[in-house]
Amino acid sequence: MSGDSYFAKTMSATVEISDGITTIEDxxxxxxxxxxxxxxxxxxQASTLTDGYATIQNGNITGVNTLSCNEFITSSFSTPYISVxxxxxxxxxxxxxxxxxxxxxxxxxxxxQGSTFVSTIYTSAMSNGWKFYYNPTSTTCMTLDxxxxxxxxxxxxxxxxxxxxxxxNQITGAITNIGSSLSTIIFLGTIKANTISPxxxxxxxxxxxxxxNNATNSNNQTNVNLFIDNIAPVNIGGSGGVNLAKQxxxxxxxxxxxxxxxxxxxxxxxINVPNDYDxxxxxxxxxxxxxxxxxxxxxxxxxxxxxxxxxxxxAPIITLSTPKLNINTNQFRFIxxxxxxxxxxxxxxxxxxxxxxxxxxxxxSTATLKYRYSVIGNTLYVNYYYYSGATAGTNGNGVYQxxxxxxxxxxxxxxxxxxxTSAYGTVVGNTTMKQVGSSNGxxxxxxxxxxxxxxxxxxxxxxxxxxxxGVQGSSYYPYGYTNLFYQFDAMIPIV
Length: 495
Known about the structure:
Helix content is 0%, strand content 34%. By secondary structure, it is mainly beta.
């Protein structure tokens, strides 16, 4: 059948239809151009399909600037631009998708592995790496360069309340670099680290640089405050020594000028027991009038001062609150002049060993009596003074032996003792005896040992007018006269 037109509501035939240009034969349509609003077919096959721009030949599409469809399925595809909703593998699982550039160099590989989609993007021929764009403004939001460096303005966690891990799989010895030598890194939260080690000369915090074994301050003309708000102890150093102000003629200050008066002290501990201190140096009592107005105390059981040359102490007053002072192995003691006996309220029995009882002389009621002693080093000094005034005392009966103050022990190895009444032992002092306007005498002071093994002083008159010579007692310069003046001084070795 041929003609210009044929219309049929239903047509079923095995004949060929042709208008000389388009032919339908055995279900196949042969035509240069098919134009229709709707073209439906279950299967469309063509060895070559072209519209003068795009060509489909042997399953390959070439000459296409834009391929746009809802679903595109192919085993092999090459194009400079893809715009699709779905890119599907024909094998579903374990399928690699290779992305090639125009010279067939592999620039990326995407791998679909079961239910997990793993993508590996790498380059072998790209010079600038990857750039990720924010499409509405066409601005670069992230860059991955050819060295694997990810460049972006911010890294944020998906969940703000959970832990955010960075480089947690680094192995021992690996180095993680953050920032450059010219950059400033700001940490707004709390930094927790097991170790902070310097990279190069040290770690710089503000003006401080912390090196491997030192900390320095670049602004070294300003004060440095450490732990100034601490009310608990601050421990510095371990089993090694701690050097303070080691360089030059510098100094160490303890205490503060910004608080109310208080004691500033240094405590030393030398044993593993919880003592408050073993030795302490404490300062107190400063004032606002002048520098150096405080008091320094050293609290310790034993204090040793060792010098290779001299020790110089300069002060208007030096006070030693101790009865004994050792120089080398020798004990040096000092006791200032101290009154042993004085009138009133004392009798001569308070200054004499004998005579005793009723035989002991008595002073006059108007007498002035003072018996004093002092200790300097290994020597005991005594001074006896008596003036009767216008009334008389009593003579007693026997020779007089004056007691030695018992504050020390006599060195008996260096003294020759006499008997009770003899005067030929070691001379330890001098005496003056007067009855004013009547007689004068001078003599020596000896130490005697009585039959009771009691050591004491005896006074021997060696020169006198009016009164005979002899040992003072009830017969020579006694106490039963008026206007009597007796005095003696002695010094004896002690241990």
